[in-house]
Amino acid sequence: MNAMPHITASACTAIMATTAVAGADPGDAHRVTPHATVGGEVLVGAETLSAGARSHVGADLVLGDAGVRPSLGVGATIGFGQLSADDPRALDGSVDFGYLDYGPELALGLRWVDGGLVDTRVFVSAAYLVTDLDDRLMLDPIDGVGGTRGLRAAIGANWADAMWRIAGQDRSKNSGDFVLYFMPTQAELAWVRSGGSDRFGATLAWGF
Length: 208
Prior knowledge:
The protein is an alpha+beta fold and 208 residues long. Helix content is 17%, strand content 53%. Strands 1-2-3-4-5-6-7-8 form an eight-stranded antiparallel β-barrel. The chain is elongated and about 60 Å long. It starts with a helix and ends with a strand.
């Protein structure tokens, strides 16, 4: 899979979009907040199973002045891992191969604003994916597996602000709760259409 030029272009697009959002209100730094996470994703379809890593990066434009504020986010996502598909030709009935997907992402959310750069938030997101499958499929294709484009939709929550705040307070009391720093801070329920199949599953990630 030789996708580096496409990844570079996608990353540049995300950076340009983030910069444009950041310039929307330069007088209020907390009107624009970054988000970045990395974690693991497991998705299950009718005849497929995928497991791998998923990362998001971007920025959110926060609207309004209330304690709970709507936000509009732009950024990019990238995922890679192993996809298992049913194949009657295989000895165990399935074949495993690598996959990579990436593309721009939009998100709508609500943020519990407390004055910091990172806030607890809930969100829905949608991404347009460019998909790169294992080159072996070009020589030995599997029925129902293929395609170079995909979609991803998810609903999720990020509680990094609340967890890190609690961990910081407990650390000052010599508590053992500093381990909260190492716990996942984001969860998503996701639907992905790529590689010729629809898959549903969950993502657990670390970040803000």
